[in-house]
Amino acid sequence: MTLIKEIDYGTRQATSEDTVTLTVDGFDVSVPEGTSVMRASMEAGISIPKLCATDMVDAFGSCRLCLVEIDGKRGTPSSCTTLVEEGMQVHTQTKRLKGLRRGVMELYISDHPLDCLTCAANGDCELQDMAGAVGLRDVRYGYDGVNHVQQREASGELNAKWKPKDETNPYFTYDPSKCIVCSRCVRACEEVQGTFALTIEGRGFDSRVTASVNESFLDSECVSCGACVQACPTGTLQEKSVIEIGQPERSVVTTCAYCGVGCSFKAEMRGSELVRMVPYKDGKANRGHSCVKGRFAYGYAAHQDRILEPMVRESIDDPWREVSWDEALSFAANRLQGLQKTYGKESIGVITSSRCTNEETYLVQKLTRAVFENNNTDTCARVCHSPTGYGLGQTFGTSAGTQDFDSVEHCDVVLVIGANPTDGHPVFGSRLKKRLREGAKLIVLDPRRIDLVKSPHVKAEHHLALRPGTNVAVVTAMAHVIVSEGLFDETFIRERCEWDEFQDYVDFISDPAQSPEAIEELTGVSAADVRSAARLYACGGNAAIYYGLGVTEHSQGSTAVIGLANLAMLTGNIGKKGVGINPLRGQNNVQGSCDMGSFPHELPGYRHVKNADVRDIFERMWGVPISDEPGLRIPNMLDAAVEGTFKGLYVQGEDILQSDPDTKHVAAGLAAMDCVIVHDLFLNETANYAHVFLPGSTFLEKDGTFTNAERRINRVRKVMPPRNGYADWEVTQLLANAMGGGWTYTHPSQVMAEIAATTPSFANVTYELLDEKGSVQWPCTDATPEGSPIMHVDGFVRGKGRFIRTDYVATDEKTGPRFPLLLTTGRILSQYNVGAQTRRTENVVWHEEDVLEIHPHDAELRGVKDGDWIKLVSRSGETSLRASVTDRVSTGVVYTTFHHPTTQANVVTTDYSDWATNCPEYKVTAVQVSLSNGPTDWQEQYQEQSTRSRRIEAAE
Q1: What CDD domains does the record tag this protein with (predicted)?
Q2: What percent of the chain is modeled with pLDDT above 70?
Q3: Where among 743, 777, 811 does a domain terminate?
């Protein structure tokens, strides 16, 4: 393996279908109309020197290094800003151009320290490369170094260039002395990331890049996405890991293991050590961009907390004992088989993870069905997005989003509901912001003022700050406006949807009880705003819906998804670019874990276990009978454990004690079991109640695939050997075989072959196809052998789209005198899910603890000031954390994240859930807030128990 060097064409690719033919240095080249001369030259294999140009951002034309001569044109125009014309004759290597370029480069070098041998960018510096490219061999102008510093300090006019290095950011440094003011970092921050955190300060030789005008990078608005570091052509912005380890020597393309965007990265290595993660330009989900997590927060893979040896203990009160793999697997297998012999086949089960690969998740559900001989399999994907599967399945016929991420570039109106893309899905959030800056209109439905409502150069047309729990009422009211004002697309509905179902829906939706005026007091949103937003969605052009857990994690989550599908069908916003229904999946493989049959009632491909023809496919493949009785979901497993009928659990890559609702109920269920097997990287919170710990492997240590939120199947490639000795799929196979499974897989590609043979939407998926195409989006069938970027183009998967009534039913969780506030929860940019990975990186600099956001009015009533310890109490439990007084939340609403186990926010959430799928209602909890002196008694007891449960016997 070698270091993958991606070609930088200098300017972005033109999209025109019309071509232009020109001649560059005597060679003919045909390119799309709108292409720059620089890119056309590169297409012809002729490289023009450049510094300020990169195909990451728009052409700028400031460095004057890419000058060319063009027959019939005066002067020497910059090739990056000059567009091609038919018959154009371009010359790139005349004597005049060579002299001009050497002169320009000489000026750059005269203002740059010549410390190349000790510079961390040595070998990866475009300034160094361009000096060689133009033949610069001597510099007539001296670099005044220390004397210049002393003179300017004495006069009180210290040049910005001579300011000290800014090393405040934990991941990269800024050395202003090496800045050549090419503005690539500034433009990347603006055009790619959309944060506008960087600017140019000063003039002439005194000009340098600065972060938010004289702020340090850490204190500025910089979100550490790494776009500026990637764009920098010198050592000005440099990863600290490169400074410490040295330049990488090989790279492997793989897929990020954080959120559902599914970014492609080059893992750049030196030996077996990871030097840096660089976003891959050919990654179809991220197009060469990244966020702070994927770009920099990979250090958890080598963290000292990671457990690398298997461990067992007889009782959860005992310390852990390190054992061999054989002993751990025998211990686990004997216990599980003993429990089944005593309590029956249904007494044990599994929980799969949305952080593991498709292949690993497939094997875990196979373990319970083919080895345990029951259907007791569930997944965290049901805990977050199962209403998506149900709602879209009922209306459209398939349980997934309709578009690819590129589709956002064609939107005219965007409806974001219950999602915070800039924090939860930041790379997609950046693409969305770019489209909004280009003129698309935005509607936000959220109880909280997310950054998209108003941030630099982006402002929502409408922010409907609805009361938590009233999504269905507001979405239905929008549909009422569209129908009652005749704004629906009758042609689309007649051709593509069930007309009788639509007529029934019209009878329901036309009722004045569904009007914005009727629900105004209930939702807290003015009728005028709802009407205006509905008209914009219906009449504003291509309209797309993007939603998240703020839609699904409600008692009416499935109804809300159905309501959004109704909106799209009403307006014909399905089946083309720039429209659709797009769930933003929270974790990297939520879509994949659903696809792989992780639910207790469905086999892979969303097919019910009661269907004999479906069971027959797997019975012939696996050679064992499959139960036709749906198994237990996680809450049912816990209930049955407390009752004494469910006794054993294998949990791969999931921390249900921290992530699932009603922590005390989860703890009681786990404590009642006789064998809990945790298969993970760290001793997580669930491991407090475990009897067997099987060390897991990171995404860097395995082969496989992830399926992102746009149904894109991406390859995960091993870049280093597993530190624990086995990839996760191998561990599952070892456990299966210890119980008599007889599995013989030798590589995950064989598991994918089995998936393709049994699951219609994956029928043509192979590792060879993924390596050839980079990625594909299912369904990947004979009809669509290269995948399906957009769904429901010519018709819905179920045939005709189905309108369904969406009656609003209030949650059973009610506010009152004891609990007058509503708590809703979410995520923050720097942390991920339960924080097990990101808390073990430098990301804690930005978020070291969970805090409770509370409106100034509610805070004043309770005597709460910013930073105070407060007690958060619900009907389920209580916890303490610090207050953040802010008007981002409305009066009557409080908000917190759930990234830190010391807070355990889910100790206060209830066990109410979605009526169709049991998805927990995390987003609506009645609470009270009061001043506190610190952690609650429960938190102290929990911490004591957690510390005790993590004891490991010293090796003899």
Answers
A1: fer2 (cd00207), MopB_CT_Fdh-Nap-like (cd00508), MopB_Formate-Dh-H (cd02753)
A2: 97
A3: 777
